[in-house]
Amino acid sequence: MSFIITARQAARDVSFQRGSMLAALEQALTLVSSGMESVLIRDSRGRSHTPAELSRALLDTRTDMDAVKPAARAA
User: Fold this and answer.
1) CA distance 51 to 40
2) CB-based contacts of 64: which residues, under 8 Å, 6+ apart?
3) Cβ-proximal residues to 11 (8 Å cutoff; 6+ apart), any chain
4) What is the mean pLDDT of each run of 10 residues along the chain (75 residues)?
5) Contact in structure between 43 and 3 (CB atoms under 8 Å)
6) Distance from first CA to last CA of the chain, Å, rounded?
7) Which run of H or E residues covers position 30?
8) Which H or E element spans position 53?
């Protein structure tokens, strides 16, 4: 499964691709800790998740990504 992590800081947008949920979460948390905003992780089905949502999914005993609610998108 492929994950794309996106974030923003001021006028700068960044994007990273990772091959596992754990690697995607690690990248997202690194971006959050460095002060980036709007950090989202998009799964291979095109659904976006916050780092908190993906963390819960990773720690949950369920492995089905359908159990994770997509993040609300700003208009």
Assistant:
1) 7
2) none
3) none
4) 92 93 94 95 94 86 56 56
5) yes
6) 28
7) helix 21-33
8) helix 51-59
- Give the amino acid at 56: R
CA-nearest of 21, 16, 34 to 64 is: 21
Residue 58 contacts residue 25 (beta carbons within 8 Å): yes
Count how many residues are written for the chain: 75
The structure's pTM equals 0.75
CB 65 within 8 A of CB 57: yes
**Strands (DSSP E) found in the chain:** 3-9, 12-18, 37-42, 48-49
Backbone conformation region of residue 47, classed left if phi is above 0, alpha if psi is from -120 to 50, else beta: beta
User: What is the C-alpha separation between 51 and 47, in angstroms, rounded?
Assistant: 13
Determine if residue 64 is left, alpha or beta; phi over 0 gives left, psi from -120 to 50 gives alpha, anything else beta.
beta
